[in-house]
Amino acid sequence: MNAKQKSSHHISPDPDLPEITDDWIAGADLYHGSKLVRRGRPKSENPRQLLSLRLPPQVIARWKASGPGWQTRMAEALEKTAPKIRAAG
Known about the structure:
By secondary structure, the protein is mainly alpha-helical. The chain has a domain at 55-81. It is 28% helix and 4% strand. It has three helices and two strands; from the N terminus they run H-E-E-H-H. The protein has helices at residues 22-26, 57-65, 70-80; strands at residues 31-32, 35-36. Strands 1-2 form a two-stranded antiparallel ribbon. A hairpin with a 2-residue loop joins strand 1 and strand 2 (35-36). 0% of the residues are buried.
């Protein structure tokens, strides 16, 4: 790369920032007993799978034109019209 590097300026730490202590770090994780509690959105029991599918541009444009949530509505329409699984016989 031939781009010029910007000169970095030393930034002094803010004197009003609290000191990071072991107690502060220990409080960053939430434990119930000895078990670490994971934060955030819970994992889905039935997660969606990524699929690459080629569709005509007109079909995609019509779904997108239907507004926000078009991918969910498309998945619901596909689920309703999915072929029935035949019993082995």
